[in-house]
Amino acid sequence: MASSSKLLLFFLSPIFIHFLALGTIAELKEQHHVCYNNTGNYSTNSSYEENLHRLLNSLSTKTVDYGFYNFSDGENADEVYVIGICRPDMDPENCRKCISAASNNLTSICSNFLLATIWLDDGEYHNCMLRYANYSIFGLMEDAPYFYKSSKGNITENLEDFSQKRNKLLKRLIGEAAARGSPTKYAVGEEGVSENLRLYALVQCNPDLTEANCTSCLNGILGNLSACCDKKEGGGVDCPSCRFRYEKTKFYHSSIEGKKNTVITAVRSVIGFVILIFIGCIILRMRKTEEDDEIVVEASSSQEYYSGSTRSDQLKNEVVPLSRNDVSMITELLPR
User: Fold this and answer.
1) Where does the pLDDT of residue 158 fall: very low under 50, low under 70, confident under 90, or very high at 90 and above?
2) How many CB atoms lie within 10 A of CB 174?
3) Rounded Cα gap, residues 177 and 148, in angstroms
4) How far apart, in Å, are the Cα atoms of 99 and each of 20, 58, 105, 211?
5) Contacts of 73 by beta carbon, 8 Å cutoff, 6+ apart
6) Considering Cα of 321, then 323, then 327, then 330, what sign does the dihedral take?
7) How is residue 233 annotated by DSSP?
8) How far apart are CA 31 and CA 261, in angstroms?
């Protein structure tokens, strides 16, 4: 039993480590918001206000695995549409908390506005964005308004080479992010600038955008880079539909690089575990019967770890008979 527990822990440990590595988001310290005063206002105690508050309040109970919120409430002229998105390396629970905080702030800051947008961050990096409108905003590309942030440090030498390498990295990631299908459109990567300097970057589009609109949005805000960050060691630009950031240190969680492989790894671990159990059952059964047509398989020393049996030392050099049918079944179970 103890050996079985160790074996189960062996397979599950990578999964536990993955979730622990996500950690928790830092305290949300800063916000950027836009209350659109040219789109009209709603009346206090109106149906629109009731629908808006009900919809925003409901976000605190919704957890979206892929970090993109798209909901609506109401009918006809009183219908409210909400879109929210989190940084791609945030786990679902912290994403929900960020969206919930954004919704609480938005109703108090932009009271009576038909259209509003808010961004929350931890003082350094964008964490989530939330916006609502009185018309459907799903699939719309909006690269304005935008805001930017830059680091305090300046590039003091080889500025031209630095800018070229940075732009090359961002352009490459824009292509990768735009080409990704829903529910995620993001990319991360790094580029060596010199022997002692590497750049790390993240780009992201709202997943409701088409590939063409995602590319257009990111290229659009990339054009604002020179206004804020041309001589800076790090910086980024955010708008309602897309965002990017670069730094000289890795600022995104390492889990984001292997996120798409997490499920595959977990499935392979489970399959491997099932195969080991299946082989063990066959060995126990075949030790009690004789097969006329057999294939000789020599047990390797690795069975000492996986077997969980007090006879593991004896199995090292023991010959175990398997029928051709059993070997065929094992072969079919192996991952291809």
Assistant:
1) confident
2) 22
3) 20
4) 21, 11, 10, 25
5) 51, 52, 54, 55, 58, 79, 80
6) negative
7) S
8) 33
Structure tokens at 256: 């984001």
Is the CATH number of domain 24-137 3.30.430.20? yes
**Helix, strand, or coil here: 278?**
helix
The model carries a pTM of 0.68
Domain boundaries, the chain: 2-8+259-333, 24-137, 148-252
The single-letter code of the amino acid at 61 is T
- The rounded percent of the chain whose pLDDT value lies above 70 is 65
Q: Are 55 and 71 in contact (CB under 8 A)?
A: yes
Could you read off the pLDDT of 88-114 as tens digits, one per residue?
999 999 999 999 999 999 989 999 999
Which range, of 46-55, 81-90, 119-128, 311-320, averages the lowest pLDDT? Answer: 311-320
Q: What whole-number distance in Å separates Cα of residue 26 and Cα of residue 123?
A: 9
- The CATH fold assigned to 148-252 is Killer Toxin P4; Chain A (3.30.430)
pLDDT of residue 128: 95
- Decide if pLDDT at 276 tops 70: no
Whole-number Å distance between alpha carbons of 263 and 257 = 13
Domains 24-137 and 148-252 share a fold: yes
Q: What is the number of residues in the chain?
A: 336
